[in-house]
Write a structure and sequence with these properties.
It is a single chain. The chain is α/β, with parallel strands linked by helices and 259 residues long. It has 10 helices and 10 strands. The strands form 2 sheets. A 6-stranded mixed beta sheet has the order 6-7-8-3-9-10, with helices on both faces. Helix 4 crosses helix 5 and helix 4 runs parallel beside helix 6. The structure holds adenosine-5'-diphosphate and magnesium ion. Adenosine-5'-diphosphate binds next to strand 2 and helix 2.
Amino acid sequence: MTGDPFSTRQAAASAEQPMIELRNVRKLFGDNVVLREVNLAVNRGDVVAVIGPSGGGKSTLLRCINLMEHPTSGQVFIEGVDITAKSTDLNAVRRKVGMVFQQYNLFPHLSVIDNLTLASRKLLKKPRSEAEDHAEALLARVGLSGKERSMPHELSGGQQQRVAIARSLMMEPHVMLFDEVTSALDPELVGEVLDVMRELAATGMTMLAVTHEMGFAREVGNRVVFIDGGEIVEDGDPEVVLRDPSSERARRFLRKVLA
Ligand code: ADP
Ligand code: MG
């Protein structure tokens, strides 16, 4: 079998089909139950802010959506395709589901443009000129035109994180996952990265963002998911979840972070 399993099966998908769906996802590390029976459906264009206390399972949830972790049981569907099935093409999943981390993970010995074009050239066999045109367009989108030849260490943390986002967009993902991407930044650099995420959301990108930025969650998210103890405890409109959550656990968490 050759070809991208997504493009063929996607055609059969109905418009209402969730972009991402988790069914009864459990994840254990040894005896430690990190995700318990998580069910979640994310629609195309949803921007989901994922919040909750440290150790609650937020990162593990995101990592199960791009198969950096494999659920112990349950299923994950992307555009209707069960990516937890044995036959899954991991590379196809990673292309559809981009992920950006707290640590930018740029290749330190490669220029900005080479960081962006490496995967297109090596994995997708794109000609250099085509890959570089695409990269330049994305660098412009994240406000970094002119930095093509810079090395990562010559850039601020905020600029490096914007390069990391642009690099992820090179694969033309259908979903973007962000795991505390502003947490390592100096406060004055947080805004420029959130601005890039805000613009991406405005283009209709489906996004899940683990964040401590409650203002961002409220403004940009159309949903807030609160995770504690490996469970989705709240899932709803940001105004409701952030202002008047139904659970005591969420109320306690929000009192701390909004204090
Ligand atoms: P959060 O992102 O909400 O802080 P995580 O998903 O990182 O939470 O972690 C949830 C729990 O899973 C924690 O108890 C953590 O120690 C554990 N955990 C996460 N990754 C691993 C791993 N690779 N091996 C063992 N335990 C892990
Ligand atoms: Mg985490």
